[in-house]
Amino acid sequence: MSALFEVNKLAKKIKSQLKGESILTEEEIINLLTFDEDAYQRDSPRSVGKRLQILSLDFSGTKGGQSVQYTRKFTSGVHLWVGDNLKGKSSIFKIIKLAITGDNDLAGDVLSWLEQIWLEFSLGSNTYSVNIQIAGPSKYNVEFLNTDRKTLEAPHPDSQTNQPLFKGGLGKYEEFIKAFFFKEFDYYSMQWTSKASGKEEIHLRTNNASWKTYFKSVFLEAQDYNVLFYGGQAELIFQMLLSLELTYPINRIKIKKELLQGELGVAKALQGATAHSQAQDQQSLRDELTTIDHKLNQLTTEKNAALSPKPTNVEIELEQARNRHQMATERRFVLDEEIEAHHQSIARLQKEFNRLGDEISKFDVDIHKRERKINDLKEYIELGAFFSSLEVHTCPHCSHEVGKNKVAQEKATGNCRLCAHELEHQEVDSDEYQMHAERLKKEILQLTQDQYKIKLKRSDVEHEIKATKQLIQKANTEITNLAIPALLTTINKLKQALQQTTTPFDIEAYLGRVSPLMARKAVIEEKLKILPFPSLPAASDNRLEIQIQALDLALEELKLLRETKSQPFVSILEALYLKQLHAFGLSHYERVEIRDDFKINYSRNGEVCTFDKISPGEQLRAKLGLYIALVELDVNHQLGHHPRFIILDSPAKEEGDNRFVEGIRETLGYIENAFGDNLQVFVGTAERNLASAVPMSKVEERGENIFFF
Amino acid sequence: MGNYTFLRNIPSHIHLVSFMVTNPYRERLRILLILYFFSEPYHNSLQPAFVQVFRSEVKIQKIDFLIRYPSYLCYELMRLYEERGSPNFTDLREIIKTIFDHQEPQLRTDEMIRFFYGAYEELDDILVFLKSVGLVDVSSRKSVGLRDIQKEYFLTKYGVDKIEKILYSLPAARWYFDRCELIKQYFGDLSGSAFKNRQYDIEVYRDTPLGNYITDIEHLVKEKYSDLFHTQL
Q1: Distance in Å, alpha carbon of A363 to nearest chain B alpha carbon
Q2: Which of A89, A231, A547, A636 is a Cys-bridge partner for A684, taking CB atoms 3.0 to 4.6 Å apart?
Q3: A104-127 residue pLDDT tens
Q4: Beta-sheet strands, E only, within A388-464
Q5: pTM, two decimal places
Q6: Of B23, B28, B137, the CB nearest to A380
Q7: How many structural domains compose chain A?
Q8: Nearest to A426 among B5, B20, B172 (CB)
Q9: How many Cβ pairs closer than 8 A exist between chain A and B?
Q10: Which uninterrupted H or E stretch holds A247?
């Protein structure tokens, strides 16, 4: 089906819906809907099969007389920079961004010493190098080469590979690199309209999304984690990443419609102005113009102040407070772990203490047994001798005295004087008893010595328990002294102060205030031009309105068609996204729905909400989930156009909640394990617990207060 | 010591290894000394050989119990202190500490069985022997229904001499002499019934099932000692 045919079909349908409004011919409608030759075949959700992977970064300069050199190589998967805030992590990412996009966000204090940047990256099977030499403010010399540095350093004399594909200044480089990546990822410029900024301009202007715009889906900064895609063109970026069929013509038709609406607005305003201009005094018009100019200047000043990168004192204080809070929280985490380890030690030692106590008791039992035996032996010998030496004088039965003859008979015969039975004499060798007692005493001595050793061991254990308890007490004291609640209070106060002094710049609101002022200004200026010529022909053509209506109908049709064609792909992405949310611990999310306006609805516990209504603790993971779903869409389904390279700057910036940090740590570990071969993620964080999310070879860490370069 | 010839007038199962199970010499000594220490002087021209008399079998059993259970003795001494202030605080602490320092609960406890009226030991064989060798004599007055209503235990002059001149010098008997003196010092004025009632106040004693050995109360003594003296035994 040729593009022309589709447009003809669409134009015919629109014509039929414009019944009674027959100003536009079918051919005029076709002209309205015609753009580039391949406009209606331009889009394909099929992946280009390439991903952007940074291979190495190298930069150097002279900072305060000292030479600075930073080098790091990278593989696929998740890489971490772990260090305190304001120690260079964001600067490293902005250097990468400068090399990859030509967009310079670096702070003045970094640019003051930075002299050279080398960045190697691969795209598919090709390797490229970017070299930026910085000779002074705004003096950038950029080379872009179709090879790696190793080959550059030892080039083949006949090779053409060390000839740069680009050589020039930063401005031109930005255009070059945009064209380069647009070609590689099959991007084009999605457009949007805005009021022109020129003083005399009353019409809308068209803006084009650049590589810098789409890079916002790569470089995710902390202040942007509360939106799914940063910037006013969020939905455009999302559409570009998906590249659903008919996206290009829908975008262009929308722009055309907005431009016509702008023209219509101006025409109507002029018509109104003409009707009233005769009744208005020139002076009052000039007064109103002055007031409008003053307001516009004020709005521009506010905008410039809000967008200024230079931090205020409150911001600096807040950053420092966050830093202190970060360090305190990390220290608290370490102390909590130490305390837990100490408690476990105490439990183990207590068990040992009790066991040794039981052993000591057993020794006591054995010792006492032998002591009793010795006692019994002694009593047996001594008391036995006493009682045995006593002669029976009286019959115990009848109480009569035993007669002398019976006594004599006993001595003579050896038979009992009472009952006449033969007496049994037991010889008792007291020496034998003595030896037995001595043997028992020796055993007691040995047992006592053995018991003493156990007592010494137990005493050591007791001492260790006491020392460990003291360590716990010391750790608890240190935790109290960290005063984390007080730090949080300070941060909250500073945040409130910051909000009062510097509110986040709302570009939509700005445009909403500026646009009517600009429109009114344009009207007044036109009035002032035409005065004193009161007579002007009234505009009567409603052609614009019909054209706008036709474009509206076209948009409606094309959006419906896009939705129908794209439903399978969108469903896949929705399913992948939901899966990722669950993998990131957000198991209470029941459904995600990508709307036709490319905003996303989230269903949780039967309630539906948009991204901005998700709690801050979940937003980052929800955002990461979408990006990872886009990566998986590419890897497993060959759909989508994300470069599969993401930079996360400070993903746990303020959250002192260990569960949140643990959630991020698990998320990064999951990404590394599940997708490490298919994407590259760079993470900069002050949260040291995240270091264990990935293998140590992928972590670059700096100690407290130490810069990365 | 030299060699001795013991007459086989002890049960046949007694021999060197197992004599600690029951030691008849020890039992004879205890009963003899109880009668010696806790009897009253006796003068009767019709019975010139008898010099001391003891009138209560129950009392013999209860005193024997206190000798055989050093822990119960300690407990009773502490109760006595709480009731009367005697022994005084210092003496009491010293007495109990000495008993425990010598580990008497572990070394000197000789368990008794609980019968209908409390701790009980069969005394007949012991008394028969003591009588046969002329150390004591026993008589009992019977009621019209031929029930023994009062037993009298007499110590002979011969018996007293043997105790004071020979037994007293035997090292093995020293502890028993000291113990009887201690009990006499603080409990000598109690009747057999009074002894019995005191012992029934102690739950472990009271709740011992009939026919079972009465268990020691070392742990109760330590608790009470700690409460009284704020230190551990």
Answers
A1: 13
A2: A89
A3: 888 878 888 899 999 999 999 999
A4: 425-428
A5: 0.51
A6: B23
A7: 3
A8: B5
A9: 111
A10: helix A247-277
